[in-house]
Every structure is written in structure tokens, then in C-alpha cells.
Amino acid sequence: MRVVSIDPAIRNTGYAVLEGDYRTPKALDYGTLSLPARYSQSECLLAIHEHICGLITRWQPEELAIEGIIYVQSHRTAIAMGSARGAVVLAAARHGLPIMEYPPSCVKLATVGRGGARKEQVAFMMRALLQLTETPAPDAADALAIGYSHLVSTDPLRAHLFKERRYI
Q: Is 7 a catalytic residue?
């Protein structure tokens, strides 16, 4: 299976492309789409959408995995995150990809073994589990973890960790 996975945000969207299954996950591409502060929100959304469309066209994934909505204290932050997420979902829908959503606590539990793990722990585990040569940046690490969780969710022995995942 090949999956593109996204940690959406207006300014720093993490992305990853993984291939394999729960026994042999492999990172094909990953990074962070960082957008300058001078971009308006609409320019950021367009850039996110175009970048995700480019990833889908280049890598031809079978599915897209995305981080689920998290609780935020600011309405402004929630709207911006929801908008970035919408740009990603639209790109996947345009290409006919099934979209699976994973809550952050589920991703952390699947990758680190603890639902309240810190970003540094997730990045360290992604380096180890995917045999990367360097520790990925935080947003890229989160995207890798989302994709890794998607591949691991097919493991019958770990299926219980993914009760909160859902197709959107």
C-alpha cells in the first residue's frame, strides 16, 4: 500500500509518503511545506492544495491519511487549521482518494506507545521505526507518524489501537 499523510497547518504543513504494510513500512518522501508570513490565508490554502495535488500526482498513493481535529483554545486557530485541512481534503477528493482520519492521541499511542507523547519522542521513534538517516523536523515527523499509523492499522494484533479512526 502507498499512502500520503498530512499534518495540516496554515504556515507549516507536514507531509509524508509511505509504502509497505505494518511489517515493512518505508518512507519515500517527507518534509514540511513552510509558507512565508507575507502570504495571505487564501494564498496559503492555494499553496497547500497545489502541493498536495503535486504529491498525489507524483507518488500515485492509494489513500490519504490526515490528523484528526484537535481541541484548540482559540477560535481563530481552529478556523485556520480547519481551512488548511479542507484544502488537503479537497485535493484528495479531487483525485478520488479515500481519506482516513486519525486523532493525535491514537497516532502517538501507535508510534510511541503513549497517547500523551511529546513531539520530540514522535520524531525519535519515526527515525528509528522507519530507519531514517536523520531525525525529521516536528511537522514532518507528525506526518510520518500519521502515515505509519495508517499502515500499522492493518495489523490484526494492533487493530484495537485504532478504534477512533474514521473515513471522511
A: yes
Q: If you search the block for the grid coordinates 484548540, which residue do you land on?
A: 72
pLDDT at 45 over 90: yes
Asked whether the predicted pLDDT for residue 165 surpasses 70, the reply is: no
- Domains detected in the chain: 2-167 (3.30.420.10)
Catalytic residue among 7, 19, 101, 142: 7
Q: Catalytic pick from 21, 29, 43, 67?
A: 67
pLDDT tens sequence across 109-126: 889 887 778 889 999 999
Catalytic residue among 19, 101, 139, 142: 139
pTM for the complete prediction?
0.93
Question: Is 67 one of the annotated active-site residues of the chain?
Answer: yes
> Is residue 139 annotated as part of the catalytic site, yes or no?
yes
